[in-house]
Fold:
Amino acid sequence: MNDDPAGLISLEGLGRQLLRSEALASSQIEGLDVSQRKLAEADRAGQDGHFKTQEILGNIRALELATLIGASARGLDVEAITRIHLELATVPPLDRIAGELREEPSWIGGRSPLEAEFVGPPWQKVRPLLEDLCTFMDRDDLSPVAQAAIAHAQFETIHPFGEGNGRVGRALIQVIFRRREVAPRCIPPVSIVLGANKDAYISGLESLREGEVDAWVRQFARAVETAAEQALSFSESVAALQVKWRERLGRVRSDAAVLPLIEQLPRFPVITAAVAEKQIGRSRPVTIEALGRLESIGVLTRHRNQKKGDSWEAKGLFRLLDKFEAAARKAAWRTSPGTFRTP
Structure:
């Protein structure tokens, strides 16, 4: 993603939205599914909303922390991983084990370890295994994509938490990408591609446990490449939409408040007057006038709410988001029908 400077600058402005898309896709893999619009509305409303939505918002915060940890010069440790889980696990039933390494057996499938499809290592080995994983993640002498692939699969094998391992494991991908400067300013939404073919994704993780490291790394690298390509394409589509919005405006003064507001909408597709005022640095009356101007030309739709306050929605952006996520999933299947092909 660093090979296209112009695209990188554009993607930087979409960093917040790409992070949300990654958090939503990672949650969808675990069966938590809400629309981008509902997620944006819940984010605006704070703590209001369904537990499912709040759990996804927790995953957004976990990813935000993961990027900060990745950007830090400090060496990675087990406490950093538990902090990511703590951010994620904010609603029942996850909140009861937030940030706590398991102290019981862990397995997937079946009613007991004897019937399970996968059994994690004994809980007494979890912390030593995580310490070894952190040492591996701190290395800089191998491909960062291979490093992320192996670290993610190894974390899932350790299965250190009672719940939430998949989302934390995918957050660790972003820790490495930020740490190794693969994606220093935005998050490539790898989970959209991995989740497009969940069976192949799980098979890939299992292949590493069986010693087929190269096969999993190739599969993962293809997913990263597809995610980066689709993110750049999304960025270009958003930029083209903003051009159309400016054309609808007609001639305005170069210092008109409506211009920086257009720049902020990709980050805040549902926006309030208070948020807009803060982001563009104008007075409340001037900000509301700018919002009204965009509403009058069909860029924004106003939603009135006497209790929570009015908000404005950029429906065109949500249409692009839906197309972006659908295109990323389609690209994953087009690259690898049925299962991910390896050369």
